[in-house]
Amino acid sequence: MILIPDILTTIRLVLVPFVFLSISKNEILTIILLVIAFITDILDGVISRKLKIQNREFGKAYDHLVDKLLVFVIVYGLVIYKNLPNWALLFFFIREFILIIGAVFLWFNKKKIEGSNIFGKIAGLFFYFMVISYLLNFEFKFILLIFSILSSILAFLIYVLRAIYFSNFQR
Fold first, then answer.
1. DSSP 113
2. Confidence at residue 63, expressed as pLDDT on a 0 to 100 scale
């Protein structure tokens, strides 16, 4: 059964190549596409909660996979066209790879895939601010990159600690 949240996630998936292509040529179009992606991501979560379908593992996995693909394409495009440091690509790639491996591990062990917590949402917000600052070549773009990375590390550590905490109580 195709659900509205899955359609919204598919819209984000379709946006991925257009986001990449627009990074080098049209920063405003890139920002518009990212705003559409951001809004569809929010709507996906809101609708899932309202319809009480957020416990669908496929929908969560699909949403996370598209989010990770979008992050990778954005960061790769910023490295190629907007002078984002190469090590930032490595950082975000490793982070996303670890998160994917963790999700696959949970899925194979029939464990619940957790949704975003507030720290993940804050990290996502810093990420989008950083992206916009690189697209528009703001002076403080590097500071936003550092905040994005630090908030990502904090969110990751909290995910890990929550997973350890909850796995100890599920025994």
1. P
2. 87
Among 93, 74, 90, smallest CA distance to 23 is for 74
Q: Which three-class secondary structure string do you get for 25-37?
A: HCHHHHHHHHHHH
Q: What is the mean pLDDT of each run of 10 residues along the chain (171 residues)?
A: 85 97 95 95 86 72 87 96 96 87 76 72 92 96 97 89 70 51
What secondary structure letter does DSSP report for 82? Answer: S
Q: Does domain 4-169 have CATH number 1.20.1340?
A: no
Which sequence spans correspond to the domains of the chain? 4-169
DSSP state of 2: -
Q: Could you tell me if residue 137 is left (phi over 0), alpha (psi between -120 and 50 degrees) or otherwise beta? A: left
Q: Residue 52: how many CA atoms within 13 Å on its side-chain side?
A: 0
For residues 86 and 79, what is the distance between their CA atoms, to the nearest angstrom? 6
Q: Give the Cα-Cα-Cα angle 39, 40, 44 (nearest 5 degrees).
A: 120
- CA-based angle 4:130:90, to the nearest 5? 90
User: What per-residue confidence (pLDDT) applies to 98?
Assistant: 85
